[in-house]
Every structure is written in structure tokens, then in C-alpha cells.
Amino acid sequence: MLKKGWKINSILTGSCPRCQEESMYVAKNPFKLKTIYAMHEQCSHCHLHYEIEPSFFYGAMYVAYAVSIAFGVAIFVITNLILGLSAKTSFISLGIGILILMPITARIARNIYINMFVNFDKDWKGHS
Q: Which of 39, 74, 70, 44 is nearest to 57 (CA)?
């Protein structure tokens, strides 16, 4: 189980990076594509504004690229080296896998990006 206060908890759950009390996203399911990027304006617990500055989450595109590469390498290693599928089948699997994982990649990238700038604060109640 992930401990509150760990960045990995906020990254994997999409919870507020400062208090980790609630989800940053309006819809918990990332596969609802119409609301994939719909976020609350601020945390209702600690009042952290999620968009720290205008266009803040554009930087998450670079993180998404790195996450996509990591997923792609993992898919290729599993299909080609572990399962022993041909290179052609492995690349087809890679393409399909990247498309299927796109909503998860987008959310994880945003979660990683905001966690690069905001740390957990167990005393957030005193700073509100």
C-alpha cells in the first residue's frame, strides 16, 4: 500500500500533491476521453491551485514523451524478448499498446509534472 506523503502515491492516484486528500481530476476514470484533462481548479482541502501559472501543464508534454518511451520499451521487451514474438508483431503490439495507454500516460505525465514543483506538506492546515 502506498503511504500518504510519498510522491509516488500522488503520482499513481492523481491526488493533490500537497495534502494528498482528494483527486485533482473531475472524472477518476482516464478512459472517459471527453474529461481526460478536466481538473478541479483547486484542492477543496488545502486550496492549492493546480494550474500554478498560465499554461502550466504544457510542460507535462515532455514528461508524457518520456513516459510513452518507457511504456514502449516495456511493451517491446515483453512481446519480443519475453514472449518471443517476431519484431513485426512486437512493433504492432507497441503501437496498439501506446494508443491504449495514452489516457493513462497523459494523466501520469500531469501527475509527475505537478509533483516536480509541489511537495507534500503534512502541516498544510496551518498554511491555508
A: 39
Distance CA 128, CA 117 (A): 18
The answer to whether residues 110 and 13 touch, using CB atoms and an 8 Å cutoff, is: no
Of all residues in the chain, the percent with pLDDT exceeding 70 is 97
Q: Cell numbers at residue 117, please?
A: 514543483
Give the range among 46-50, 82-86, 120-124 with minimum mean pLDDT.
120-124
Taking alpha carbons only, the member of 53, 55, 48 closest to residue 24 is 48
